[in-house]
User: Which sequence fits this backbone?
């Protein structure tokens, strides 16, 4: 699963990307500095993993991960091919969720492509490019469907009606995710077209150091502007956080954060938010060799969850031995949980819960 970082040039995307992935993408004070899409694999911070490590004392600990893609070069006119625009829009289509970075800091030394700081205008510029691209998609499809409809095909007529709603929504500047459609209409006709503006979105307000804990007037405007979208708005001092990741020790980093009025890096909140946005959750395996967090889509069955470890585990699935995270911590070890009769044996229909500690039994 992938989350893509979008935003106008110079709003702090590659700084954010660097700070998340610690991969050193090129970052400089001019538009178009990141030409190739950069992909980073980011660990998902999870306190439960630390607790399990303490209890099990394994040789190694492996956290869950999310893939983050830095999508540069989105500018006004991108949907018409400006500034390599179409290529970048293609990159967005391949992601599962969008992290939309908005510049909410003043700094004369950092050029703004449109001459002034205005996150609402910036958001609309990006939204419009994405909507225009989706409009192209829906128009193409609608042409085909209408032709099929002419032969009296009832399904095609129904589809044409739904797509017509999508088209007029986009034309009046509404993103697909916010267009008023029934669940059936979405599932049947809208999802398969993979519209860019149908992907779940989270707004990242990039603020200056002083506003890291409190936000600022720009952030308030953003929150107001997105109230209808049911989207999370996160405040992050991207530049400052990038500086913090450069510090050597955990203690130094923690002190710096406390000075800013923060308990944990905003990036941790962001990564967890992205994980949630992607509708993912975590189960654990815990043994002396390794304690590990595994990522599954919310609602995955036990065999599907086993398949994340290895496809053979799914094919040969027999049963899952499951301990809830709360029981594991309460009793302090697998042996004690078993003694207390709290380990459950679950079959193929079991829906794995976030935090389950699982052993799979399978045939090879
Ligand atoms: P991108 O084009 O969106 O990827 O933007 P960059 O990450 O390359 O950042 C553009 C410029 O803004 C760089 O010079 C960064 O150092 C600077 N910058 C990024 N975040 C912040 C911030 O939070 N505050 C300030 N003052 N500058 C920042």
Assistant:
């Amino acid at each position: 699963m992938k989350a893509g970082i979008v935003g106008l040039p110079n709003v702090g995307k590659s700084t954010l990307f660097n700070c998340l992935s610690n991969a050193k993408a090129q970052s400089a004070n001019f538009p178009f500095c990141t030409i190739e899409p950069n992909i980073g694999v980011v660990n998902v911070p999870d306190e439960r993993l630390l607790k399990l490590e303490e209890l099990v004392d394994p040789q190694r600990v492996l956290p869950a991960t999310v893939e983050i893609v830095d999508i540069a070069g989105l500018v006004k006119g991108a949907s018409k091919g400006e500034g390599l625009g179409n290529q970048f829009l293609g990159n967005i289509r391949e992601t599962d969720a969008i992290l939309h970075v908005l510049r909410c800091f003043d700094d004369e030394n950092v050029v703004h492509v449109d001459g002034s700081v205005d996150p609402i205008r910036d958001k609309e510029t990006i939204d419009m490019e994405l909507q225009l691209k989706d409009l192209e998609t829906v128009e193409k499809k609608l042409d085909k469907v209408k032709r099929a409809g002419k032969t009296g095909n009832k399904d095609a007529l129904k589809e044409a009606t739904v797509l017509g709603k999508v088209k007029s929504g986009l034309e009046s500047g509404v993103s697909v995710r916010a267009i008023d459609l029934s669940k059936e209409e979405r599932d049947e006709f809208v999802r398969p077209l993979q519209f860019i503006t149908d992907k779940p979105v989270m707004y990242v307000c990039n603020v200056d150091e002083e506003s890291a804990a409190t936000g600022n007037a720009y952030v308030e405007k953003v929150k107001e502007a997105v109230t209808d979208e049911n989207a999370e708005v996160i405040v992050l001092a991207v530049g400052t956080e990038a500086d913090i990741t450069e510090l050597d020790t955990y203690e130094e980093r923690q002190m710096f954060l406390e000075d800013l009025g923060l308990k944990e890096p905003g990036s941790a909140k962001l990564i967890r938010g992205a994980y949630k946005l992607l509708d993912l959750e975590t189960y654990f395996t815990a043994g002396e060799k390794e304690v590990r967090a595994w990522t599954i889509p919310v609602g995955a069955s036990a065999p599907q969850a086993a398949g994340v470890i290895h496809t053979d585990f799914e094919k040969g699935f027999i049963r899952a031995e499951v301990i809830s995270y709360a029981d594991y911590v309460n009793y302090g070890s697998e042996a004690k949980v078993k003694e207390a009769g709290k380990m459950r044996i679950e079959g193929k229909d079991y829906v794995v819960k976030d935090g389950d500690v699982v052993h799979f039994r399978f045939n090879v």
